[in-house]
Design brief:
Oligomer: single chain
Structural class: mainly alpha
Number of strands: 0
Order of helices and strands: HHHHHHHHHH
Strand content: under 5%
Length: 216
């Protein structure tokens, strides 16, 4: 089925992104043994954090979940789903990485699409996509007293940048929906999972001696 408009595609991708990131946030909060309110807060922040910061950066745009309250319902459904099926979800190999990769991909592409909608330069679309993709996870990690993944050695934001560039290339060559959305999303998910599986990282800024001194 071909999607009729880019707006339809963005709404579907954003809804799916909110759902899976709510699951990611819920699983993280439950692993820290937060109470029910804490779990819901972490799920909400994870799901809307990146999109909210994106919307704050764009002139005349309100936070998407304020104008479309259906997102709040989606987040609640995702939270309840993760709570009810937590034991089954944990059978997935590294479930947090899996759901985080899906949310990362979906929200990155949404951010790039909105940048195009606002007629931003390509580099700004890439930045907007990266912010949308990673900041929910950053806020989640900060609130659960973890060092955000983006600040550690793992390739995280780089995956968003590559996926954003890929999307812009497909858009430039006028690739039609739904291929235009689906292929870059799958690209980001696969690359992110491969990075984690093979423990691929960016070159370290520190020598071995420096790391030992910092650890001491």
């Amino acid at each position: 089925m071909q999607l009729s408009t880019m707006e339809d595609a963005m709404n579907i991708i954003s809804i799916l992104g909110s759902f899976v990131l709510a699951i990611s946030g819920t699983l993280t909060a439950m692993s820290k043994r937060f109470d029910a309110f804490g779990v819901l807060i972490i799920a909400f922040v994870t799901a809307v954090g990146g999109g909210t910061i994106r919307d704050m950066l764009l002139t005349g745009r309100s936070a998407f979940w304020i104008e479309q309250t259906g997102y709040i319902h989606i987040i609640m459904v995702g939270t309840i789903f993760a709570v009810v099926f937590r034991s089954r979800l944990l059978h997935i190999h590294r479930p947090l990485v899996f759901f985080d990769a899906i949310g990362l991909a979906l929200y990155t592409i949404t951010g790039v699409q909105i940048g195009i909608e606002y007629e931003l330069a390509a580099v700004n679309c890439i930045i907007l996509g990266t912010i949308t993709g990673v900041f929910g996870g950053i806020l989640r990690d900060i609130l659960t007293n973890e060092v955000p993944v983006i600040f550690k050695k793992e390739v995280y934001a780089t995956v968003c940048i590559l996926g954003s560039i890929f999307y812009l290339l497909l858009n430039h060559f006028e690739v039609i929906n739904p291929v235009l959305q689906i292929v870059p999303v799958l690209f980001i998910i696969v690359i992110r999972l491969l990075v984690v599986h093979y423990n691929i990282s960016l070159p370290s800024l520190y020598r071995k001696e420096d790391r030992q001194m910092l650890e001491d």
